[in-house]
Specification:
Layout: E1 3-8, H1 13-23, E2 27-31, H2 43-57, H3 65-81, E3 86-88, H4 98-109, E4 117-120, H5 131-139, E5 145-148, H6 155-166, E6 173-176, H7 183-192, E7 196-199, H8 207-215, E8 220-221, H9 231-241, H10 245-260
Parallel strand pairs: 1-2, 2-3, 4-5, 5-6, 6-7, 7-8
Length: 263
């Protein structure tokens, strides 16, 4: 099974399904979103969507609980409507107490059948906020975390993230976008910590996925980050990065299927 390991909901859903069919993707791991760049038709409208995205990251817009609830509910409805095509991760607000986080998980994550937590996108210097998420994940079946490791995070933040992961060795950590410009350091860190996985979406060079697959063939995950990326292009990168068909199968879906216990 070919599984796109990271994509944001594209509307209408039929457009997302058509994109998957073009790429030969059988299942997609969906993440919540509060922006829809696929709606943009020129630079101006794209900038309007991304301005919202940047303001969310900077904490300049409403980051209260209601927007999180709406986004999680939107993805849950799509997964319920197309269970054969979509699986999901649910975002969890940062800054809550452990008790409040547990209540959120029991109310919005577990009943909807989400398989993990994320995407977590945060300001540099705030990785410590994930401590509560790791602690709760360890209490709810060691569900994996997916963390955005592109800016505004830097290499120090990535080191802090992996150090935090070491304290929860049974909780899988997916290093989203493989550290961006710090991909070499991120691969090296992942090699040291067996519960970490490398997400290939948004990489800045073909060398990154090629080396990641060579170094960690059982812990590297194909993904597109659609609509920012295209699943067919992302799949082609994996297929060109390794000639080993068994490794290709693992990266294109088997690794994630094992991690999430998908049939």
């Amino acid at each position: 099974m070919i599984i796109d390991g990271h994509a944001h909901l594209i509307l209408p859903v039929e457009k997302h399904l058509a994109l998957m069919e073009t790429a030969g993707v059988e299942r997609t791991l969906l993440f919540t979103t509060r922006v829809h760049p696929e709606r943009a038709h020129d630079l101006e409208t794209l900038n309007q969507e991304l301005r919202i995205f940047n303001e969310i990251i900077a904490g300049k817009v409403n980051n209260g609980l209601q927007p999180f609830q709406q986004a999680v509910s939107e993805v849950a409805q799509v997964i319920q409507q197309y269970p054969e095509h979509f699986t999901g991760f649910a975002n969890v607000p940062l800054g809550l107490t452990q008790e409040e986080t547990a209540t959120w998980i029991e109310k919005y994550v577990l009943p909807a059948g989400f398989r993990g937590f994320g995407e977590f996108t945060m300001q540099s210097g705030s990785v410590h906020q994930l401590e509560v998420i790791f602690a709760c994940a360890s209490e709810y079946g060691n569900l994996p975390l997916w963390v955005h490791t592109l800016p505004p995070l830097n290499l120090d933040d990535i080191h802090q993230l992996v150090a935090l992961s070491r304290r929860y060795p049974r909780v899988p950590l997916i290093l989203g976008h493989m550290g961006g410009m710090y991909w070499r350091e991120t691969i090296a860190l992942a090699k040291e910590v067996p519960q970490t996985y490398l997400d290939l979406s948004g990489t800045i060079t073909f060398l990154g996925p090629r080396i990641a697959i060579h170094e960690l063939p059982t812990r590297t995950l194909f993904s597109s980050d659609a609509p920012f990326g295209h699943p067919l292009i992302a799949r082609t990168i994996v297929e060109q990065a390794t000639a080993d068909t068994a490794v290709r199968r693992r990266v294109l879906g088997e690794n994630l299927a094992e991690l999430l216990h998908l049939n």
